[in-house]
């Protein structure tokens, strides 16, 4: 038994504003979230929703993960950038070189994302969300491959990538050097066993793969908070 990736969750100071921005960028529909946030429902083969959950904590430093959005042409790339800027994004400098074809932006709360140039061969068969690009070790790529049952589609020079057998975005990890973790991540995964699965059995399986149970102050909740081998938080929900 493996878990399914249910959602990618953003901590947000203003969940509604952030959800409206990303709904406009991605062309996804908004829906109410059962835990006081806002959800976006995929309109393509992405396979998971995006949740925006309220927090009082401000963003500090670069995120551990960001979206790489694809482009079919230079005009398409420019349209995505223009649409994002109109929705509240801004250009940022993270040290990218002028000759690099991707455009680096940040959403209204500073969450980084890239609009890739057309002809990106690594993302050639992916949809608009080409990848969730993560800072992380080879070990954590192996962990998530086993946790989700997604095969490795790249494993070279300690860089790894996985992808659902059903398609959708790749999840990539860049290998060393991995930036030191500084507090709780702004983004995290929600995963869940299948409808007839067992949450506790899945937690034990994930521990056997290298995860740990952690306490981030949660009390009286139905989900289990864990950390992957790199220390990145994720939640194991009840079966669904």
The general outline is globular
Percent strand equals 25-35%
The low-confidence runs, each spanning 5 or more residues with pLDDT under 50, are none
- Strand order within the widest beta sheet: 2-3-4-1-13-16-15-14
For the record, the count of structural domains works out to 2
Helix content estimate: 10-25%
Q: How many DSSP H or I helices?
A: 4
Gross CATH architecture of the largest domain = Roll
Characterize the biggest β-sheet: 8 strands, mixed
Q: How much is the radius of gyration in Å?
A: 17 Å
Key structural traits:
single chain, 240 residues, alpha+beta, 2,3-Dihydroxybiphenyl 1,2-Dioxygenase, domain 1, Signal recognition particle alu RNA binding heterodimer, srp9/1, 8-stranded mixed β-sheet, 4 helices, 20% helix
How would you sum up this structure, described in words?
By secondary structure, this protein is an alpha+beta fold. The chain folds into 2 domains: 4-173, 2,3-Dihydroxybiphenyl 1,2-Dioxygenase, domain 1; 187-236, Signal recognition particle alu RNA binding heterodimer, srp9/1 (2-Layer Sandwich), CATH 3.30.720. 20% of the residues lie in helices and 31% in strands. It contains 4 helices and 16 strands. An 8-stranded mixed β-sheet has the order 2-3-4-1-13-16-15-14. The longest helix is centred in the middle third of the chain and has 13 residues, at 74-86. The protein starts with a strand and ends with a strand. The mean pLDDT is 95. Residues 125-239 form the VOC domain.
């Amino acid at each position: 038994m493996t878990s399914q990736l249910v959602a990618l969750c953003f901590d947000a100071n203003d969940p509604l504003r952030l959800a409206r921005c990303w709904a406009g960028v991605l062309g996804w529909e908004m829906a109410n979230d059962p835990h006081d946030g806002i959800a976006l429902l995929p309109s393509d083969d992405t396979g998971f929703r995006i949740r925006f959950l309220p927090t009082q904590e401000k963003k500090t430093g670069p995120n551990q993960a960001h979206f790489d959005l694809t482009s079919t042409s230079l005009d398409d790339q420019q349209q995505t950038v223009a649409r994002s800027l109109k929705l509240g994004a801004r250009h940022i400098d993270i040290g990218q070189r002028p000759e690099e074809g991707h455009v680096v932006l940040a959403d209204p709360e500073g969450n980084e994302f890239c609009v890739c140039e057309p002809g990106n061969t690594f993302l050639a068969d992916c949809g608009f969300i080409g990848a969730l690009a993560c800072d992380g070790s080879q070990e954590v790529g192996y962990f998530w491959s086993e946790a989700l049952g997604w095969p490795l589609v790249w494993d070279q020079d300690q860089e790894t990538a996985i992808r659902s057998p059903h398609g959708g975005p790749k999840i990539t990890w860049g290998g060393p050097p991995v930036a030191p973790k500084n507090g709780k991540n702004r983004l995290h995964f929600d995963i869940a066993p299948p409808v007839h699965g067992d949450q506790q059995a899945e937690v034990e399986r994930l521990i056997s793969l290298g995860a740990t149970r952690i306490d981030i102050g949660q009390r009286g909740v139905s989900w289990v908070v864990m950390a992957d081998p790199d220390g990145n938080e994720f939640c194991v929900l009840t079966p669904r």
